[in-house]
UniProtKB/TrEMBL annotation:
Keywords: ATP-binding, Brassinosteroid signaling pathway, Cell membrane, Kinase, Lipoprotein, Membrane, Myristate, Nucleotide-binding, Serine/threonine-protein kinase, Transferase. This is non-specific serine/threonine protein kinase. It comes from the Eukaryota. GO terms for cellular component: plasma membrane. Its EC number is 2.7.11.1. Belongs to the protein kinase superfamily. Ser/Thr protein kinase family. It is a lipid-anchor. It comes from Nicotiana tabacum. GO terms for molecular function: ATP binding; protein serine/threonine kinase activity. The keyword Membrane applies. SUPFAM superfamilies: Protein kinase-like (PK-like), TPR-like. It catalyses: L-threonyl-[protein] + ATP = O-phospho-L-threonyl-[protein] + ADP + H(+); L-seryl-[protein] + ATP = O-phospho-L-seryl-[protein] + ADP + H(+). It is an enzyme of class 2 (transferase). Residues 59-326 form the Protein kinase domain. The gene is LOC107813974. The lineage of its organism: Eukaryota, Viridiplantae, Streptophyta, Embryophyta, Tracheophyta.
Length: 491
């Protein structure tokens, strides 16, 4: 790391800022060939989002604001693909014009960058106004700077946060979205790799008039207090306040920080946890950069391209993954992130016809040991009539004669001593087709008892639970089935 700082003698004149020649290709290299694997922006149904959040349960709230901006963010999981999402629910009076809200959301939803927690969609039904974005599992910059548990954020990681945020703002600006509302440490989130991302929610106003910049006027750009309008220069001012957060590990009002800088009381400004982990030059340049962003007159502040140039040159430990710098174990692919099999997908959307087709094609290959047991009993002439019942059931199943199939499968299950989870699965679907979800659930559970590691049993349980309106339980059961599929793929 850098040389130990026992005496911080920062020179703050602009002439001391290093000149770094940086080509556009170097700055924008991070944006090339992004593989985000994200769906296109779309409108979600209110019932779909209710299901994802257990009807906006308080247990799923991940952040909420005060009386000036009473908007709440929920964590949720979509039924169809298990994707985790963040859902911002606006106060009912924030956007009375649904068309205005939808147009604004669609514009933000066109952005796609690995530096953003991207907007996936929105919902406009009745008085409800909701935004749907990628969910970031490793919380906010505020948490890691101000409320850390095990260790403070490392200097190299703080520099990376600053650079990635500048890259995010530069990308948004290049797409015609220069304005960001109320940029602060709560708007910076960490993804599954612990890379920092900028929340897309700040790219939209908190309401149609945008009159809710900050709940703390000490951090509000001075021109906003006069005009009530956000400008690109206002965003740079807020970026400077964020640089102060990164430097100090505290939420220091810009006016107080500037007094410390002018009075050269730097030790009071710099996070004591960082002592010995950065050089005089690096510390001096970051303090200078923050002070330039916080100039009272907007035209005296640097633009985002200039910020990118300065911050790129400061980066340390460039090859170290973010999760290593943050000492957080990297999340491997989890069952909820593994795409469901076609059967899992069909059960998640209650496509009973697709389920039938998949079960028909699968045959009886999952009935462990049943073929040998049947052969022995047939040789002993003990089960021929029972086996005929199964064949008749299969014929009725193919012909979609589900009442007859239930009757024949029941004769098979009750007429012999052979266990068959596949017959139970088929009868479970027949019950679903016959609008008997309780019976379907019982058969799927019995199939699980007979074959405990069979994903099909879990998927059919989920289908029955969805039909019964038990969506939360159904999603958990889908995850169980997906987990078993995941283990099979790894074997």
């Amino acid at each position: 790391m850098g040389a130990r700082c026992s005496n911080l003698c920062f020179c703050l004149w602009p002439s001391n800022i290093k000149s770094h020649v940086l080509y556009t290709s170097d700055i924008e290299k991070w944006a090339e060939n992004e593989q985000l694997n994200l769906p296109a922006f779309r409108e979600y149904g209110l019932e779909e989002l209710k299901a994802a959040t257990s009807t906006f349960s308080v247990n799923n709230i991940v952040s909420e604001h005060g009386e000036k901006a009473p908007n709440v963010v929920f964590k949720g999981q979509l039924d169809g693909n298990g994707r985790w999402i963040a859902i911002k629910r606006f106060h009912s009076s924030a956007w009375p014009d649904s068309r205005q809200f939808l147009d604004e959301a669609k514009a933000v939803g066109q952005l796609r960058s690995k530096r953003l927690a991207n907007l996936l969609g929105c919902c406009c039904e009745g008085d409800e106004r909701l935004l749907v974005a990628e969910f970031m599992p490793h919380e906010t910059l505020s948490k890691h700077l101000f409320h850390w548990d095990n260790q403070p954020l490392k200097w190299a990681m703080r520099l990376r946060v600053a650079l990635y945020l500048a890259q995010a703002l530069d990308y948004c600006s290049s797409k015609g979205r220069e304005l960001y509302h109320d940029l602060n440490s709560y708007r910076v989130l960490f993804d599954q790799d612990c890379d920092p991302r900028l929340s897309c929610f700040g790219l939209m106003k908190n309401s149609r008039d945008g009159k809710s910049y900050s709940t703390n006027l000490a951090f509000t750009p001075p021109e906003y207090l006069k005009t009530g309008k956000v400008t690109p220069e206002s965003v740079v001012y807020s970026f400077g306040a964020l640089l102060l957060d990164l430097l100090s590990g505290k939420h220091i009002p810009p006016s107080h920080a500037l007094d410390l800088i002018r009075g050269k009381n730097f030790l009071m400004l710099i996070d004591s946890c960082l002592e010995g982990h950065f050089s005089n030059d690096d510390g001096s340049e970051l303090v200078q950069l923050a002070s330039r962003c916080l100039q009272h007159e907007p035209h005296d502040r640097p633009n985002v391209k200039s910020l990118l140039t300065s911050l790129t040159s400061l980066q340390k430990e460039k090859d170290a993954p973010s999760h290593v710098l943050m000492s957080i174990a990297r999340e491997t692919t989890s069952p909820s992130q593994v795409p469901l099999t076609p059967l899992g997908e069909a059960c998640s959307r209650l496509d009973l016809t697709a389920i039938q087709d998949i079960l028909e094609k699968a045959g009886y290959k999952e009935d462990e040991g049943i073929a040998n047991e049947l052969s022995f009993q047939m040789w002993a002439n003990q089960i021929q009539e029972t086996l005929n019942s199964r064949k008749s059931g299969d014929s009725a199943f193919r012909d979609k004669n589900f009442t007859t199939a239930i009757k024949c499968y029941t004769e098979f299950l009750e007429g012999g001593n052979v266990k068959s989870p596949t017959v139970l699965a088929r009868r479970s679907l027949c019950y679903l087709m016959s609008d008997k979800p309780q019976e379907a659930l019982a058969d799927a559970m019995q199939a699980q008892v007979q074959f405990s590691n069979w994903p099909t049993a879990f998927y059919l349980q989920a289908a029955a639970l969805f039909t019964l309106g038990m969506d939360s339980d159904a999603r958990e059961t889908l995850k169980d089935g997906s987990s078993l599929d995941f283990r099979r793929m790894k074997q």
